[in-house]
Amino acid sequence: MPKLKIEIRKCPECNSPARGTVETLPACAEFERGAEGTPEYSGWTEVLWDEQKTNRDREGRVELICDNRHRWFSNIEEG
Fold first, then answer.
1. Are 18 and 7 in contact (CB under 8 A)?
2. Rounded Cα distance, 67 and 69, in Å
3. Are 22 and 64 in contact (CB under 8 A)?
4. Rounded distance, CA 18 to CA 71, Å?
5. What is the pTM of this model?
6. Where are the domains of the chain?
């Protein structure tokens, strides 16, 4: 695994280290048919893992998150 060079490695709000990147995962919350044939949520959601994307801002910086769920953007390089 390549090491990451993170410009802002610690949370600007609480100074905790970055836990990871914030990702967007498309998913399908599935339906089942109720007694009258009307759709109801089944309680099952299929995550479409192949479409997962890292959140970025307009400058291309990656969104990071700490253990306290604070979020910030930083430049990251693999190296």
1. no
2. 5
3. yes
4. 9
5. 0.81
6. 4-78
